[in-house]
Amino acid sequence: MAKTDPYAALRIKEFNIFLLLRLFLVFGWSMQFIVIEWQVYSLTKDPWSLALIGACEFIPAFFMAPFSGHIVDQKEKRNLLALCIAAFSLISLGLFLLTTNMVITSWSTNRILYSIYALVFFGGFMRSFFGPIIFSLIALIVPKKIYPNAATWSTSTWKTAAVLGALFGGFFISWMGVPSTLCVVFVLVVIAFFLTFLIKKKPILNKKIGESVKESLKAGVLFVFHNKAILGALTLDMIAVLFGGTVAILVIFAQDILEVGSQGLGILNASISLGSIITMFVTTYIPISKNTGKKLLVSIFIFGLSMIGFGLSSVFWVSVLMLFISGAADGISMIIRQTILQLKTPDDMRGRVSSVNSMFVGSSNELGAVESGVAAKLMGPVAAVVFGGTMTLITVIAIGIKNPILRDLDLTADMGENQTTE
């Protein structure tokens, strides 16, 4: 069934609840990111302030990731997810209060900025838990034989929510203002919290409950570094995200280069995710398991080229097209990476492996924001984007030559084995 049915995972009721929960959560998260970047840059007009936002998320997310993976493998996943969403709702509430007229008129700009940075830092701490929890929970909801299909739908839902969040985030700033938009975010997160309890508690599959943190972390790291397919995919994606991402400085292009305002910012952000969504839905019908490694390398190479094209463009529709292409290419790489992780990771190590993935890829989003902000400050936004795209191309060529295991990776056999073992 999993080989021919593109809706296999959607036939499981709990998985649909999980997707709905993730839709609300990521939709709010994506809107919040857009609004906070807009608010901070509007207050400072300094690219360095955008780099600080990335740093405040990166530092706790990166250094907490190994420990969060250990905790996730030791704890029940449903209740842990509910706890994290509850904490995230407090962050959303705090950001909403910081943008109200009462605070804006009575607090200094620096005090507001420092408070925003503090909440973003706390959000980075909480984000270190979300990846391992969600990765582990999917494997407890769906049968192993449809992991690839579930990974595709889960990632597609995440990207759909990112599209809508980015799009509505920009438009809501124009229509409702910053405070009302952040209030909507808070409501969405609260809805996600209550949806969590429609999912049943799940068993803890880790047989080494009470294992020391040191031994637990060592086992997770060694597994990733000994699996060349996982390590190669994570390394490639990390470098691409680190140097090729432009999301953190899109606000500069929207305000100062393309001059399209908050609505244009929403369209620019949404075009990235829209490209990913279309690609992901196509892959539910046309699997990408054959010649997986080559497809991964080609997709990230196209991503790098599109970033260079975006950086050089001064025409709005061309910029939107370049970002759309980058999103489509990125969508393929994400599906491949998630499928590799789901198929190659043992059940009792999912939290730790996902946390290593977060350190490689998830935290590189925040570190990439720092790199983009600093590069934009030093060399200007256009040169920063072109430099990042060029570094991505160089990395793809180097890894393609130096890592034959990744280059020749084919997941057809792995998926077939999982079909017969159920």
UniProtKB/TrEMBL annotation:
InterPro entries: MFS (IPR011701), MFS_trans_sf (IPR036259)
Main location: membrane
GO molecular-function terms, A-Z: transmembrane transporter activity
Gene3D superfamilies tied to this protein: MFS general substrate transporter like domains
Subcellular location(s) per record: Cell membrane
Organism: Algibacter amylolyticus
Any one GO CC term of the record: plasma membrane
Transmembrane segments: 15-36, 48-68, 80-104, 116-141, 153-173, 179-199, 229-254, 266-288, 300-325, 378-401
Keywords for this protein: Cell membrane, Membrane, Transmembrane, Transmembrane helix, Transport
Protein name (database record): MFS transporter
Keyword Transport: yes
UniProt membrane topology term: Multi-pass membrane protein
